[in-house]
Each structure stands twice: as structure tokens, then as C-alpha cells.
Amino acid sequence: MLISIIGTGRNGSSMLARLLDGPDDLFVHPIEERLVTSFDDLIRKRRVSRNTEQNCRIKCVGDLQVEVPAWLLERHFYPSLRMLKNDHIDNSEFTKNVERFNINHHMSQKKYKLSSFLPDYLSSLGRHILPGKQFKNYLFKTIETPYIHDYVRLFPDMKFIHLVRDPISVCSSQKRSIMHNKKHPASYLGGDWLDCMINKRWLPHVRAIEKFKHSENHLLVKYEDLVRDPYKEILRISEQFSLEMPNRPDTQTEFCDLDMDTLIYNPSKKGIKATNKVVDDFQKINNYDELL
Fold it and tell me: pLDDT by residue (tens digit) across 112-135?
């Protein structure tokens, strides 16, 4: 079974993935991936545009049944796979000796359609990182909210966890991260950052949630509920999609309940260290200023 956590960014998707991690039959891929939009670019022009990289596009995709060479996919996914190795595989004494994953070396086909690539990619990653496990469920996270319909079309049995957060908090976090911490201009995401966050991420997401709200394959999770009572929300997700309940549903782990040496965390405020345990009032504790 394929499961996606989908959201706008700055909405807790990494935390949710780590909370769901734990069961022996669930492989949780910790890197946020762009798949529909990346394949569209690679098919059209053999490279991925900056708007795609920044998740600030809403234009329709073309024919995604065209095959893309594995060597081209390796070139595109190299940064993600390097991050997987450096920030996650090397971040636990139980996996740090695993070599970096290579699409050309560790996957079976020389060309891939997206519909065949995604399941093969996730299952190959699971076998490579944790060869002793027998996975039957694979979870990944993506920020491609305008393309939920394409995921549904290509993967009709996929399960969707729609993680939403108050849009003011999302936009405030993004502004703090981009303009105050990283000192990027307001146009960094392609056009105005606020236009990108609302019109190209948040609104497409809630419109898709409304469309699919009666589907058993789609589940809405609110960030505010998740941090308030993680056990309740993880139990609700597990029951909805017939997943095993993690042993520690309030603790962030990776690679089947492994504790990380360091929690890889990208706060919107500099100098903030997160804990493995979920904290309800994290921003209040760390004196976050309202910048929006």
C-alpha cells in the first residue's frame, strides 16, 4: 500500500512521518519528494525548472505515461539521495554503514514511467536501508498540493493523509524562514512568496480536500490537533488505513522505531532545538515573534 502525507510545507509533515514510523511492515521515506512535477519537467525538457524545485507552480502536467531514463532520474534525485544518506541514514548507529542509494545500481529498470517508478523506488529504498524487514506499506511525503488529482489518477489505491495547518501560522513560518533567517527576497519562491503559499499551495490543497472528503482513501489531519494529542491522531490514522500502531506514537523516530543521534529539524527561527517528543506550544516556549 502506498501512503502519502501531503501538505503546503511548514505544516509538520516531517513530524507526522516520524510519529507514524515504527511498525515493522511500514517503510517511511524521510525525504520530501516532488514526483508528478519533476517527471513532467524531465519528460518535457530533460531538466527540472526552478519553479518546480521551489514548489511554486500550478500549471497542468502533460502525458506522464512517457518513460524517463534511469540515469536521468539518478541525476535529478541525487540531492535527495545525498540528503537521505547524510541527514538520515548516517544519523543512527544502526544504519550509518549503509551506502548511499543509487537508482542505476539499486533499481531494476533502465526506464520508468512515474506509475512504475514510485512503488519500485520506495520498495528498493526499503530493501537497501533495512534489508531484514518485510515491508508491505510505504509512506512518503510531498508538497505537490495542486497535483493531488494526478496522484489519484496514477495511483487509484493510494491513501492520502492531508495535513493542514492554520494558514496564518504557515505563512508566518515561511516568511520567518525565508526573509528573516535566510535573508532571501520576497520573490525567492518565484513571484511573491505569499502568493505562492496561498494561491499555489494552501488553496489548491483545501479545494482537493473538499473534493475528496467522502473518499475512504483520504483523511484530513489538523496540525493543531496532532500536537495537542498525538496519540489520538496517530491512532485515528492507523485505524483508517489499517496500519499497526507505533510503539511510541508521541515520539519522532526513523527507520522502524530507531532513535536519531540528532533530530534533523528545520525551524523557522534560528537557534531552536527540537525534542523527539511532540510539544504542543513549541512556538510559545521558544518566544516566536509574529512576523506576518
Answer: 999 999 999 999 999 999 999 999
Q: Using DSSP, state whether 28 is helix, strand or coil.
A: strand
C-alpha 131/C-alpha 124 separation (Å) is 10
- Relative orientation angle of helices 230-240 and 13-20, to the nearest 10 degrees: 70
Cα 253 from Cα 276, distance rounded (Å): 8
pLDDT at 147 over 90: yes
Q: What is the CA radius of gyration of the chain?
A: 18
Say how far apart CA 17 and CA 28 lie, in whole Å. 7
Contacts 24+ apart (CB under 8 A), 71-76: 71/104, 72/42, 72/46, 73/42, 73/103, 73/112, 73/117, 74/102, 74/103, 74/104, 76/38, 76/42, 76/48
* Strand spans (E) along the chain: 2-6, 26-33, 68-69, 111-112, 137-142, 159-164, 218-222
Q: What is the pLDDT of residue 270?
A: 63
Report which of 254, 235, 20 is spatially closest to residue 129, judged by C-alpha positions: 254
Q: Are 286 and 171 in contact (CB under 8 A)?
A: no
Strands 68-69 vs 111-112: parallel, antiparallel or unpaired: antiparallel
At residue 269, the pLDDT reads: 58
Average pLDDT of span 214-222:
98
Span 89-118, pLDDT tens digits = 999 999 999 999 999 999 999 999 999 999
Nearest to 154 by CA among 192, 204, 115, 180: 115
Distances (CA, A) of 12 to 151, 183, 190, 200: 21, 23, 23, 18
